[in-house]
Predict the 3D structure of the following.
Amino acid sequence: MTQATDTFLETLSDLIAIPSCSDAAGGNEAAVQAYVADQFRSAGARVRTFDATEIDGFLDHPLCYGPDRNYRDRPTVIAEVGPADKPALLVLAHSDTVSMNNNPALWTITEPFVPLIKDNRLYGRGANDDKWGVACLIHILRALQADGVPLRKRLVFASTVDEENGVGNGVLLLHLADLGAEAALYLDGGDHELLIGNLGGSTMELHPPARTDHEALVALESHFVDACNRISAERRPLFSGPWQDNEAADRSVTPRLMEEGYIALYFYTLPDEDGAAFEQQLEGMARDILGNQADQFRMSTHTPWFEPTLLDPGHPLVNLVAGAYAAVRNEPAKVTTVSKQDAFVFRRYGLPTVAYGPGPTRGHGAYHQPDEAIDIDDAMAGFQVAHRAVLDWLGKD
Ligand SMILES: [Zn+2]
């Protein structure tokens, strides 16, 4: 292993070893964010941190999800380099991770917070999503300092909180913090794809009357599977252009019987689509399936929704990141979209944003799964793509 790989993996391992899970109630990002702030400082950046409660207009913003969630000790960390009066590229990643799937015993290679390298993969919670991204922020800053790169423009590095359960909250905080960025590179994604758009949508919950037995719910779920498959097939032709290969294109509504004993319908909407009308269609489907029990079920849809957004594939930011990718990997970048991502908040407010990450989205060790892992060559190639994109942005007029 080269020295650069060694030191990158050291940082990524440090980050994994500091638990920072977030859940529906809150999150414990404080310790990992303190580590990140230290690293940013020692790389020579101007560093500041803020809590959600310090950002005016956040808690009552229409896109703020669950304002009663706990926001104590969950600082966002910002590092800036370059002239303060120049336009900035914002480079960000999120410091929180999902939990251990509530069952650490599902981890077979190592424990979630004990990073381990095996078969050229680094294992641990967040190895892929998204401590890889946070490690990139630190190492891009270090490289800029070590190489004495002239900074004609400003760079803002942000390690955010509350991505996994917060809809757009972490990104909304950055938007409201008014960083003066003209473009954003979000180091969170998968499979080396360049993500320029996201679907909208939300989750509809169907809560049965008390003491509905499990068998009845299993039977209901299978009816929902059939109906959702039909609706998804009807909608398939809507997914064209950059939406063609979207992971949700074949299943734009899917039901799941939750452990807590209710049925959740995950649904996705496209730009220019009437989301409210689709929600009504789903309610109608649910009422048909439930028949005369419908009124005994409590139906609700999470708000706020993810909003569908798409950056023009010809936007200079897309060309910049695609160019960096091609230069590092000797192949053209795949420019596509993702189902749900908090980057929608930036695009919604006119900040061009491309998201990118190298980790696996499927198979053993995929993001959010037990034995989460990242291939070391992928991790380093991904870092080089991000680093190169930042250098190219600095160099371009
Ligand atoms: Zn992520």
